[in-house]
């Protein structure tokens, strides 16, 4: 299981992603500008989410 709890603040955008994904293939869908790419970049380690 993948557990995700990310908060990332950019210039004009704040990403709050909190979800659990079961083992297997997981897709992230949403409209343009909803934070899909930033979420994946944080999971891949390309961006650093805010640490609380």
UniProtKB/TrEMBL annotation:
> Mind telling me which SUPFAM superfamilies this protein's record contains?
P-loop containing nucleoside triphosphate hydrolases (SSF52540)
One GO molecular-function annotation for this sequence? ATP hydrolysis activity
Q: Which domain of life is it from?
A: Bacteria
Gene3D superfamilies given in the database record = P-loop containing nucleotide triphosphate hydrolases
ABC transporter domain segment(s) = 21-50
Protein name per its UniProtKB record: ABC transporter domain-containing protein
């Amino acid at each position: 299981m993948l557990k995700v709890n990310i908060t990332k603040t950019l210039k004009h955008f704040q990403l709050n992603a909190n979800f659990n994904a079961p083992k297997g293939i997981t897709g992230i869908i949403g409209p343009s500008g909803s934070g899909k790419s930033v979420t994946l970049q944080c999971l891949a380690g390309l961006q650093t989410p805010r640490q609380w």
